TrEMBL record:
Residues 1-46 are annotated as: Disordered. The chain crosses the membrane at residues 57-80, 92-109, 121-139, 145-169, 181-203, 209-228, 248-265, 271-292, 304-327, 333-355, 367-387, 393-419, 439-459, 479-498. Its main location: membrane. Pfam families: MFS_1 (PF07690). Signal peptide: none annotated. Keywords: Membrane, Transmembrane, Transmembrane helix. This is MFS transporter. SUPFAM superfamilies: MFS general substrate transporter. The keyword Transmembrane helix applies. It is found in: Cell membrane. The keyword Transmembrane helix applies.
Amino acid sequence: MTALDPLDADPADATGPRARLVTATEPSARPEPLETPDTPDADDAAGETVLGRRFRALTLGIISVVSLIAFEASAVNTAMPVAAHALDGVELYAYAFSAYFTASLFAMTLSGEWCDRKGPLAPLFAGIATFGAGLVLSGSAQQMWAFVAGRGVQGIGGGLVIVALYVVVGRAYPERLRPAVLAAFSAAWVLPVIVGPLAAGTVTEHLSWRWVFLAIPVLVLLPLSVMLPALRKLPAGDRTPAMNRGRILLALAVAAGAGLLQYAAQDIGWLSLVPAALGLALLVPCILRLLPRGTFRAARGLPSVVLLRGVAAGAFLGAESFVPLMLVTERGLSATLAGLSLTGGGLTWALGSFTQSRPRLEPYRERLMGAGMLLIAASIAMLPLALLDGVPAWIVAVAWIIGGYGMGLAISSGSVLLLKLSRPEDAGTNSASLQVSDALGNITLVGLSGVLFVAFGGGSVSHGTEDVLEAGNAGGHPAAFTAVFLAMTAAALVGAFVTTRLRPARAQQSVVPD
């Protein structure tokens, strides 16, 4: 047995306390394939593509579901201000967003346990039904608290769906096709991101903001009918006898802790220290037990894959959240032009995801992810240049084109690598960990960006856009934006280091539960 890396001295750190180390010379040293003899990786499917006869219905159904979720995300952002004003609940505006993400944190872990026990079919359809119910609740709400509750129900549905879709990819497609399917996940976001705001704005202005929410559940019926026959043919796989209730309770505690921290961040003051302390007391110990052991010290293999997802997503979104505000307050652009500056990033994200799906690049997956993180860091580092009068504002669009390509390389490759390192019976749990890391990265680094923005004189973003616009017109706060972008650049560079830890040590080619 070769020597372990010093950071990996505890072999249980890769997936949990009950794991044991298997050397590369033992029969089970390589991860077991996710296919069974009845899966699409049989000889008669060797020449199939994701849009071939065998996989076409399932692929189109998956892309349709992801596209509708993406359209909802972009459309809701457009309709939300009008909805909050109509329901006389602007003071609860931030909770309409945080309720979704907080509820999804719990649902992701629940979905992982459910998939490992019963397969992905039940949680997928339950998630879609719950997501639709949340849309109806929000669209028919007569008070803002009911609207926020509907958003929470949407979050539960979204968390169930996204994890189940990853498990579907792991069980339905052979390993050689998974990069292409996950590239399609990214491509499914392109059109909704471009069309969603325009369509939602038109519907909101000419009909009602309510129809932005009420129309989507009807559209889900078609992709469900298309993919149901293919989903019923999925191999059963190895299933655990019962759900791990401990993990579900941990996820509930994490969601509660995140909710308390977000509540405290809405009004920074001495009294907010109480919910903040309670939130940290719940969040920190529970998340350490919920994610693979060794995640926060970048242990080799699966823990580093999970960590990288949160760092990449959080750094990118933490910077992106302040780009439109910077362009409006510091460069005098309209809100429309400021938003359009980010559009190129969505297109190149899909391009980067397509690049990583090329079969000839498979041996270099970890290097692709490292290159992606360096591109993200470079793109964020370019943003402060837009604060200089002599630099054209379109430098932001160029930077985000570069950053989007890096995200496509890193995020999609991470999903492929996670499925590759996961045993079939652990695919749900590991996919849930990946999504939880994503959500926590967003919450943590976007929150850090907000704190830095306020600390360096940018004004309290919780007081509304109008207050920040007035502050910008009064002289601007370039130092606040610079602090945000430099911090997110540093986070992306940390992610670049984590990519050097993605490949398991030679003596740790796989980890097999006892």
